[in-house]
From TrEMBL:
It comes from the Bacteria. Its EC number is 3.4.21.-. The keyword Signal applies. Keywords: Hydrolase, Signal. Residues 58-67 have a biased composition (Basic and acidic residues). Residues 39-67, 119-139 are annotated as: Disordered. It comes from Streptomyces mauvecolor. Transmembrane segments: none annotated. Residues 1-39 form the signal peptide. This is Trypsin-like serine peptidase.
Amino acid sequence: MRPIRPSSAERTGRRARRGVSPVLAALGLTAALALTATACGPGDSSADSKPTASATGDADKLQIPDDVKNQLKKHGIDLDKWKNGEWRNWDKATWLREAKDYVNPIIQDLWDPDRMRKADKPPEKAVPNDISGDKGVTDPTPAPVKAAAVKAPYHQSLPELGKLFFDSPEGSMVCSATVVKDPAHPGKSNMVWTAGHCVHAGAKGGWYRNIAFVPSYNNSNLPTAQLQKATKAQIAPYGVYWADWAQTSQQWIEGGGPTGGTGAPYDFAVLHVTPEKGSNGKSLEETVGGALPVDFDAPAVPKISAMTANGYPAAPPYDGQKLYQCKDKPGRLSLEANLPTMYRIGCTMTGGSSGGGWIATGSDGKPSLISNTSIGPVTAGWLAGPRLGKEAKGVYDSVSTKYAGR
């Protein structure tokens, strides 16, 4: 998981935010651009795969709205070039980083079974065991809790959980994510919760690309040997959902990074997703059969008897193909006296589990998402996640409001 160390006050994003509403900038608002192309070929991001037209010819019939065309041109993005591999250009001058800059054109079948299976790099690095900057608040390091494999089929017990795939300059990467409720669309949510570092590289980078969510990934817990020949329906039984909108905190954009930073206590993100193959009239929540409420007013740490962290750990000794969970009573972790305190539990899950939801009894007495995996060391056996306060609620409410009339 990602190491935490105090970072210098990096403010490169502020120059680009001139002229943007302070409210939108503070919420990490992003632009939604869901376009469709088709692709085939090797899944490795370094492969020279060439997208082709689909058998139905849908790509040839695709009509791109003028406002979307203008937005792409504004960013210097040519859709044809993008779907033919231009997205692999990570030049700093073209790597979009600001809150308003997010683009994620759908490339159909880019995430095929082989590419999903080979995507095993977590975006974060390991932290040292003793990273507390506020000994007066931080509780003793918790004892390691061995991650337990979730019984298959995963959908029966954790229908909201899934795996997140995306591309970075280092290649294809993975995180975990959770379907959450949408106040604007009760029972019909298309919102997904994950970590900020699973969608944006932080202070020295920008938005990741080809972000897609797969609920109940490898639902039947197929062994690795069988996964090499598995069909897309076996690996992604409920489909692949692309993020047509992503939003994280401005604190993460300004202070986060692969080795931590001051953005860690704000390391959360909300996605709005759309099915890769087009809607059948059902929302993501209806398709998987569940969505978790998010509690932004959870009880204080001493009053929480246990939290359960869920995810697809991909760093050794795990391979990212199976769903695990850890249950433990949380303690407090303070990185710096002037930063919000984080939750911390014992857990042996590694990188790849980042973004996975932490479930506990909420303030209403029902199971709720209370945090998400953010940081942790390789050997000490603990994980930490952000407390979800007003900043997290602002991001969540903004995504919900954006799609309230749709």
